[in-house]
Design goal:
about 180 residues; mainly alpha; about 70% helix; about 0% strand; disordered C terminus
Length: about 180
């Protein structure tokens, strides 16, 4: 038996949240080079995060590789700064705000904590305020907040895709599955 795909506008779906982007914002997002820049930097940052987290955990578990772990956290922080700066530019292009656009307000708020912890790491490293173990624990705290923040942005990406599917379905341009039925999100 082939189950029917769930309709995006099915009764009982409850109140709908407003779309993440207005049609104008969506057009600006789709036409901006900064969208591509963010799309390239995000997976690079995630890869740097994974490698660095493993190096930090290796140091904490076995006491080996302090230099590699330290360098990796500095690199991760520089990549974070880069994606934050380009993200602000992207937000200005799409939403006409440098930061805290309503569609990404809570992600931006949490990003400030991510930046504060990563910056705290650099300050502690530069001033000697923490020893190696303290630095690595601070790095892990920064990485935990980064992971939560990344999940927030992935969720928003999912919401944007659902919005696009809804808009396409309402316009009669729904994508088709291999069975020929429309895609339900």
């Amino acid at each position: 038996m082939n189950p029917q795909p769930r309709r995006l506008d099915a009764p009982g779906d409850g109140p709908r949240r407003p779309p993440l982007y207005t049609p104008t914002e969506r057009a600006r997002r789709d036409g901006s080079v900064w969208t591509l820049v963010q799309g390239i930097l995000a997976p690079i940052q995630f890869l740097v995060f994974i490698v660095s987290a493993l190096l930090v955990l290796r140091y904490l578990a076995w006491g080996e590789g302090l230099t590699a772990a330290t360098v990796s956290v500095v690199v991760k922080t520089l990549v974070l700064y880069t994606i934050m700066i380009t993200g602000c530019i992207w937000e200005k292009v799409v939403f006409d705000r440098w930061l805290f656009a309503p569609a990404f307000f809570w992600e931006d708020v949490f990003s400030m904590l991510v930046l504060a912890l990563h910056t705290g790491y650099l300050v502690a490293l530069g001033t000697g305020a923490l020893g190696p173990r303290g630095l690595m624990i601070l790095a892990l705290a920064a990485y935990a907040t980064y992971a939560i923040n990344a999940a927030q942005f992935i969720w928003k990406l999912r919401m944007a895709r659902l919005d696009m599917a809804r808009a396409d379905a309402q316009a009669g341009r729904g994508r088709k599955t291999l069975s020929g039925q429309g895609v339900a999100a």
